[in-house]
Amino acid sequence: MATKLTLTVEKDVIEKAKSYAKQTGRSLSELIESYLEELTHEHKNEKTLSPKLKRIVGSVKLPRNFDEKKELKSYFEKKHL
């Protein structure tokens, strides 16, 4: 059941959020609901992902045994050695 919610947010943040919502074909309500759902969702038995990796989750299919630290180490070794 949907319920109304009144928020006080800085005007420039609202404008940016509305623009983002329009670009992604979603409503501002959908964005906020999705964010709140993710924020309050309990991730039981899940490995914690870095914020950078969380932003791209879903756009790339990673293997179940993906080791972020190992991959970053390998990347930086190749780059700097």
Mean pLDDT: 84
Q: Runs with pLDDT <50, length 5+?
A: none
Count the DSSP helices: 4
Helix content: 55-70%
Q: In whole angstroms, how far apart are the ends?
A: 57 Å
How much strand content do the residues show? under 5%
Derived from helix and strand composition plus strand pairing, the structural class reads mainly alpha
Please provide the ordered H/E string of secondary-structure elements: HHHH
Q: How many strands appear in the DSSP assignment?
A: 0
Q: Report the C-alpha radius of gyration, rounded.
A: 18 Å
- Biggest sheet, open or closed, and with what strands and sense? none
Shape: elongated
Topology:
Elements lengths: L10 H14 L3 H13 L10 H6 L11 H13 L1
Quick structural summary:
The protein is mainly α.
Describe this structure in words.
- The protein is an all-alpha fold and 81 residues long.
- Helices cover 57% and strands 0% of the residues.
- The chain has four helices and no strands.
- The protein has helices spanning 11-24, 28-40, 51-56, 68-80.
- The longest helix has 14 residues, at 11-24.
- The model has no long low-confidence stretch (mean pLDDT 84).
